[in-house]
Specification:
single chain; Arc Repressor Mutant, subunit A; D-Maltodextrin-Binding Protein, domain 2; 22% strand; rod-shaped
Length: 293
């Protein structure tokens, strides 16, 4: 069915006459008459009975009127929705983040974004770097926030910050009383790490290899907060983000080991699908992530 014919039909039906419909559409009466005849011919159905003054819908015309009104109401709603979407007035923003970013870096950004765009629904899934890149590949999220390495050819990316990983222990750990020690001394104690696929774990393993050491995990767990609590046994060592342990180091709940010959730093990136155009909401969030609080 030709939607232009349908729009002319709706104007005439609502206005009650050919002339009033033509005036509403700003076209000539003969053009309106021709459009109505073409529509009736395509449907093989009379839609109007001509009256001395105006027109009256036939039973078939009345049925079509109901559909036409719904179609063009939906058209107007679509126009409003897309206009609002383009202006970041409404819609949805789906983000994936690895643990450190999802728990510590993103919450203040999300608060600022929500303040600026209160009608945008924001969904954040916190997992690890491997899971975030998989969600991007599958189209489940628009933006990913990861720590550590990733395939730079496969994703558009932007560096957000650099982050130090610190070797931390409970204050009762045997190494906690030393003023300086080498990375090799750490090998005598259990190493607690995040699960395989974690950006933090990948960064630690790469740094150990570059130093001629092997990062042999004695325990792996998918939660940074759980890692901190496991250190209370007084035996384990964990390399944790400086952002994650600031409070515990300040309070004395955890102790930073003074390893003199090994520093681990990683990059924090925002990712999106290579070649994909970001829609307004993720583009606005990405821009916000580059500005200071």
């Amino acid at each position: 069915m030709n939607l232009h014919h349908l729009k002319v039909f709706l104007a005439v039906a609502e206005a009650g006459s050919i002339s009033a419909g033509a005036e509403r559409l700003h076209i000539s009466q003969p053009a309106v008459t021709r459009e109505i005849r073409d529509l009736e011919a395509s449907l093989d159905l009379r839609l109007f009975d001509r009256q001395p003054r105006g027109v009256r819908l036939t039973e078939g015309g009345q049925r079509l009127l109901d559909y036409a009104q719904r179609i063009f109401t939906l058209e107007r709603a679509a126009e409003r929705d897309l206009r609002d979407f383009a202006q970041v007035e409404q819609g949805e923003l789906h983000i994936g983040a690895s643990a450190t970013l999802g728990s510590y870096l993103l919450p203040p950004l999300i608060r600022r974004f929500r303040h600026a765009h209160p009608h945008i629904f924001v969904s954040v899934e916190v997992s690890n770097t491997d899971a975030v890149t998989r969600q991007l590949n599958e189209g489940h999220i628009s933006l990913g926030f990861v720590e550590g390495s990733f395939d730079r050819e496969a994703y558009g990316h932007r560096l957000l910050a650099r982050d130090a990983l610190l070797p931390v222990v409970a204050p009762t750990h045997p190494l906690a009383r030393l003023d300086s020690l080498s990375a090799e001394r750490l090998l005598a104690y259990p190493l607690y790490m995040r699960e395989p696929g974690s950006g933090a774990r990948s960064s630690i393993e790469q740094a150990y290899r570059a130093h001629g050491l092997q990062a042999q995990a004695q325990m792996a767990i998918g939660s940074t907060e759980a890692l901190k609590r496991l250190l209370a046994d007084g035996q384990g060592i964990a390399w944790l983000s400086q952002r994650v342990v600031e409070r515990e180091l300040a309070s004395g709940e955890l102790h930073h080991l003074p390893v003199s010959d090994l520093q681990i730093e990683r990059e924090l990136h925002a990712l999106w699908r290579q070649g994909a155009s970001l829609s307004p909401a993720p583009a606005a969030f990405l821009a916000l992530s580059e500005t200071p609080d």
